[in-house]
Every structure is written in structure tokens, then in C-alpha cells.
Amino acid sequence: MKNLAPPEKRVDGPSQRGQFKKRASILEAAADVFCRQGFAGASIDEIAVEANVSRQTIYNHYCEKETLFVAVVDDVLKRANSMIFSMLATFPVNADNLEEDLVAFAIRINKNCICNQDGKFLRRLVQNEGERYPHLFETWRQQGPGRIISALGALFARLSASGALKIEDFDVAARQFLALGNADLQIMMLFGQTPSDEQLESAARNAVRTFLRAYGTATSPERPDLAAVSG
Amino acid sequence: MKNLAPPEKRVDGPSQRGQFKKRASILEAAADVFCRQGFAGASIDEIAVEANVSRQTIYNHYCEKETLFVAVVDDVLKRANSMIFSMLATFPVNADNLEEDLVAFAIRINKNCICNQDGKFLRRLVQNEGERYPHLFETWRQQGPGRIISALGALFARLSASGALKIEDFDVAARQFLALGNADLQIMMLFGQTPSDEQLESAARNAVRTFLRAYGTATSPERPDLAAVSG
DNA sequence: GACGTTTTAGACAACACTGTCTAATTTTAC
DNA sequence: GTAAAATTAGACAGTGTTGTCTAAAACGTC
Q1: Which Pfam families does the entry mention (chains A, B) (predicted)?
Q2: Model pLDDT for residues A8-49, shown as the tens digit of each residue
Q3: Domains defined along chain A, listed by start
């Protein structure tokens, strides 16, 4: 890590006029290798081979290994953030068919945000390098998860206001919804495995059933005989 | 990684007659450094300094870096396993004061198994090196989480049989209990932070309240007016 | 086709790390 | 106190990596 980069060498490298494909290829390969090997274990040569690019080209675009790393993290963070908010936009609006809609929503979140390559990469990277390079994730840490939970909480608030759910703390409910959605997948994901569609569906069903038992109003059909027991 | 270690060099090193303190000191320092830097990023010299030991001593006890790594993983896995099962032994037996007992249980699990140093180490290690050194975690992967969930599930089954809970799938309930317990702590833990006692308690309360709403029978006091709404 | 830019392969120095060796020193057992 | 065992500091070769440099080749644009 050089503290003083020579000012005549631009950090941003070529690409003013094109060669976007090279950059994209490097970013993708670097994400792969950094994810597999970690920052310390990743070698520029390995990235170059995987990107079908010469090592020098990497140094032309990103003057240091750390510059490349920062660019990869930025890229993945941006993509993951836009993905999660586009998924939040598919949250069910009305409450007819709520259970099925929530199941489908949970599947989408898990499949496209948590269990995909970007999700895996982010979990690893944050966990490994978050303490070593706090500045990389600081803004995401302060805004990312908090804003996601707030947004999801607001969606649950809407359902709660319409009487479909009965929730006191919307943010807690949002966190619990996500946590329940991962409950059956966490161990797989810890080992880097990707769940099958069947596993995704089963996990989502288990999660939503429990969530609706806790927060659903009486119209939820899936709580067979609690009223009978309580009455 | 040498494939053929000279047979006259014992893998287990000295310690037949004592020097346990050195070994323990090395193991502890190595766990620390491996956890912070990963396998590739950790240097033997750094471990030696942190253990207050010369580098040669490390090589005397563990002939290769990988041997040391394996020993550290074994050590942590054994300790974590024994801790989790000793915590499971404190699961509430009877159902009077169930909510408070479950809260205390969740706090104990989180504090002593999930949020402590060993838990952090294991999460990192499994996630990072689990694919590269599958043999290290294979037996734990097959037996560890599965047996933990089964054991916790059996405890919930006991409460269910006594009528205090109403659960269909005990293993699912066990996973959900643990997932709910982590719901409020996951982001902190991802960044390597350790929750305060207040945060631990609040997280456990939120988790148990929701869990009991989903699985509790009518005797649970904390579901204020579902019956009224449903009636 | 010509020109400026980008890419490439390869060589290169500087550095860090692993694992070995040795000889001196300290610790431990008896 | 003595002898065996363990530890230490330091030097060392071998290796891999980063980042630089150069000259040739490929590319894109006009």
C-alpha cells in the first residue's frame, strides 16, 4: 500500500474512450478471485489469467492491488444495493393471498440478494476485510443495512395499517422476516453452497408460516386451532 | 504444503513432558492471527511475536503452517462444540416462567456460542477456508450443526409435549429460534462488533416474544388481543 | 493505410514469507 | 548440580508476489 501515488499516474486508468469490456472482465475476475482467496491470498497474476488479460493491463487500469480491490467492492456494493431495492419494490401491496405473496417475496430476496454471488462476496468481504479496511464499508454500514430495514419496515407498516398484520415494531419485524427467511439456509450458505429451488421454496414457506403466526391477524388461515385452544 | 514429511520428524512436536503453556500460547495466538488475517495473510512471525515465542518453537511443535492451522481449527471446534452442548443443558425444563427462561437461554447461547471469539473465528474460518480445506470441517459440517439442531429440537419437543408450545416440526422451530435470536445482532456481528449486554437482552426479548407468538399456546400472556380480533 | 492508443509478454528489482539450520542459552527433571 | 530437553536468535536458500519497465504487437479511428 503506497501512501503517495505519483500524481502523473491517473488512478482511473484508460477507458475514457472505450475498452469497457476489459474493465468489466477485470472487475468480474477480480471479484471471483478476491472472493475465493481473500485480499491477501489473491494474486494479480491469477486475476489476469481469469480475466484473459495481461497483468500489465490490470496495472494500467488500477494502479495498485488495493485500488482494484476498492473498485471491486464499490462495484459489488452498488449492484447489490440496487438489486435489493428493486426487490423491495416487489413487496405485496394488498393482503389477499398474503401468504403466497410473502413466500414469493422471500424467495426473490433470498435468491437474488442473499444466496447469489454478490451476496456471498459481500458477506465474506465485510466479515474479513471490514475491520482492516473500515473506510471501504463505512458508508454502506451506516446507510446500507439500516435503510434496507427501514424500507422493509415501512412496507410491513403499510400491511399493518391495512389490518393484514399486527405489528408493533416494524423494524424488528423486518429483521425477523429476513432472519426467518434464512433460518433453513444459513448452514448451507456458511459452506458456500447454493440452495436448490426446492430448498428456497421450503425455507420461505417455513419462514412465512411462522411469521404470519406471530404477526398475522385472524384472517390468516394457517394457524389451525390456536383460537380453539385459547377459547 | 509438503506431501512427504520426513518420518523421523514427529508431527506432534515436543510436549511429551510439559511445555503445555507454550503450546497453549501458540494455539491462542495462532487463532487470533488466523482469525484476523486469514490463512494466507497470517505470518508465522506474527504468530510467534503474539505468542511470545520464537518462530523456531512453532516449527518444533507444528512442523508446517498448515499443521498449526489444523490444530487451531481442531481446538476451536472442540471447545465450541462442548460449549454449545453445555449451554443446551441449561434449556428450561418446565413451562412456568417460560418466556423469561427462554430469554435467558437465548442470551446464554448468543453470548457464549455465537458472539464470542470462538464463534466469530468459526464463522470466518468455515466461510473462508471451508471450500479450500473441506476435510477440515467435513465431519463438523455433517455432525455439528445437524446434531445441535436435533438436540435443540428435542428440547422443544419436550416443551411441546407438555403443552407449553405447539410445534409441528421441531427442527424447523429450533432453527427459527436461533435465527430469531440473531436477527437483531447479525449486522453487528458481520462487522466483527460484540454486542453489549443491553443489546443481547433486547435481541433475545424480541426473538422470544415473536417465537412465543408463533408457537406459544394460549397461556402465553404476551399476545394481547389476537383472540379479541379473531373473535 | 496511417497514427495514436491500448494491450501484451517478458524481464526485472524489491520485498515478504516459509521452512531449515546452527550454535548458544534457558528451562526442566532428577 | 547435572544432564537432557526445550527454546532462542539469527542467518539462510527457495519461492512467490508486487509493481516497474521496455519493446513489440494489436487495435480503433480517421
Answers
A1: TetR_C_7 (PF14246), TetR_N (PF00440)
A2: 334 445 545 547 888 999 999 999 999 999 999 999 999 999
A3: 10-63 (1.10.10.60), 73-223 (1.10.357.10)
